[in-house]
Design a protein that fits this description.
- This protein has one helix and eight strands.
- It is of the alpha+beta class.
- The protein has one domain: Quinohemoprotein amine dehydrogenase alpha subunit, domain 2 (Lipocalin), CATH 2.40.128.
- Strands 1-2-3-4-5-6-7-8 form an eight-stranded antiparallel β-barrel.
- The N and C termini lie far apart (about 70 Å).
- About 20% of the residues are buried.
Length: about 150
């Protein structure tokens, strides 16, 4: 018995529809760094860093890479100038960061670090949370609150 050409035409269209549905269904939702992911951070943020009751202002410039890696720069500009680099990982609405900065004129130290888990608001509008600062061998609690 041979299958007619008419048979193959009849099953081709439904078969293509099922295959398309499987491909789209398996694609899943976007992940960190993918277009459409609701917690990607990108662009320029301004805000504050509060340490021991002293609020400093500055900027953060960041971008989310495919897979959730986050890179950027940090600049505190009032009341002192401190510049650093930011590296982190985005998972869900949490951004785990490590910030390495250079000379701190307030303490005279040649550099330090800030580490913490920050919360990202939907669509990346705000970055905020607690960090630990290591500066001249001292550990300080601080909070970050930045927005676009």
């Amino acid at each position: 018995m041979t299958l007619s050409e008419d048979f193959w035409i009849k099953i081709r269209t439904p078969g293509l529809l099922v295959l398309t549905g499987l491909v789209v269904g398996c694609a899943g939702s976007p992940g960190p760094g993918d277009a459409g992911y609701p917690y990607n951070v990108a662009g320029d943020y301004s805000g504050s860093l509060t340490v021991a009751g002293v609020t400093m202002t500055g900027t953060i410039q960041v971008s989310t890479q495919p897979g959730g890696g986050v890179t950027g720069t940090v600049s505190v500009n009032r009341p002192i100038q401190i510049n650093g680099t930011l590296n982190g990982t985005l998972a869900g609405d949490q951004l785990t960061v490590g910030i390495a900065y250079g000379n701190n004129p307030a303490t005279g130290c040649s550099g330090g670090t800030m580490d913490g888990a920050l919360t990202i608001s939907e669509h990346g509008a705000t970055i905020s949370g607690a960090v630990k600062i290591a500066d001249c061998g001292e550990i300080l609690d601080a909070t970050i609150d930045f927005s676009r």
